[in-house]
Amino acid sequence: MKATASLAILLALSAAALAPVYTGPRALAYPQPEVVPTVWLLDFTFDQPRLIPVADLRGNLRWYWYMTYKVVNNTQAERLLIPEFSIGTDMGDVVEAFDGVPSNVFDAIKAEVGNDLLENPTQMIGRILRGPDHARESVAIWPAFDHDIDLMTVFIAGLSGETRNIPHPITGEPVVMRRTLMLDFATPGTTSPSRAPLIHLADRRWVMR
Fold first, then answer.
1. 162, pLDDT greater than 50
2. Number of separate helices (H) and strands (E) present in the chain
């Protein structure tokens, strides 16, 4: 059941990003990433998503999901880091991280985490030098959903140089797909952000998106 929901999320997010490439009977014909990468791939580690309440300018509490992460460049050269996060749920929600997230939310998260190395997401685009000593750390943030969800999927692009060109099913023009990390989080019973939700990593895999 969760695999079906996960596939639905993948197709919905792919369709939103590349519509109308993934529609109709062609929806399942997406390419797969290389089993053994032949191009550069950055090392990505993360902490489980958590919820945090932050007051808006009117003093009303708003809830946000956040996921801290670290990127290490263990490749043979300096790379350009452009991390991109998309989130989908089994209820059909599709959002991009940071959309509609006030700047004070990052400040609240950094204070809660207590990590002085945590960079503001707006400053993460740029060079990443080789080696663990030059690791970069930041956080993905998105608004909490106001309804029950049982599966939340986070897609992370910008970690690899692997791409694939496929023809647009209507125009025939090439469409570029990128190697993307896909994280499935089971979130049973998330009916209210104010209650600590049960959440665990259900699956982690690479896809082309």
1. yes
2. 2, 12
Phi-psi region of 5 (alpha: psi -120 to 50; beta: other; left: phi over 0): alpha
Q: How far apart are CA 88 and CA 12, in angstroms?
A: 8
The answer to whether the peptide bond before residue 20 is cis (omega within 30 degrees of 0) is yes
CA distance 68 to 51: 12
For residue 137, pLDDT beyond 90: yes
For residues 51 and 143, is the Cβ–Cβ distance under 8 A? no
**Close Cβ partners of 6 (under 8 Å, ≥ 6 residues apart):** 151, 153, 182, 184, 202, 203
pTM given for the model: 0.84
- How far, in Å, CA of 54 to CA of 101, rounded? 10
Instruction: For residue 112, give the H/E element and its range.
Output: helix 103-113
pLDDT range class, residue 191, cuts 50, 70, 90: low
Is-contact 183 156, C-beta < 8 A?
yes
Q: 3-state DSSP call for residue 51?
A: strand
The answer for residues whose C-beta is within 8 angstroms of residue 23's C-beta and 6 or more apart is 15, 169
- The closest alpha carbon to 6, from 204, 180, 158, 171, belongs to 204
Sorted by sequence, the CB contacts under 8 Å of residue 74 that are 6+ apart come out as 42, 43, 130, 131, 132
What is the C-alpha to C-alpha distance for residues 79 and 161, in angstroms, rounded to an integer? 10
